[in-house]
Amino acid sequence: MLPNQVGKQLGHPTYSLSGWLVSKFFKWHNQVLEENAVKLCNIEPNNTVLELCHGPGFGLHYASQLLTGPEGKLFGVDHSQYMHEMASKRMKEQISRGKVELYCSDLMAMPIEENTVDKVFHCNCYYFWPDMKAGASVIHRVMKPGGIMVTTLRLDSLKRTISRRALNGKIWNPEVYMDALQSCGFTDVRLEDNRDKLIHFQAIFATARK
Ligand SMILES: C[S@@+](CC[C@H](N)C(=O)[O-])C[C@H]1O[C@@H](n2cnc3c(N)ncnc32)[C@H](O)[C@@H]1O
Question: How confident is residue 164, by pLDDT bands cut at 50, 70 and 90?
Answer without folding.
Answer: confident
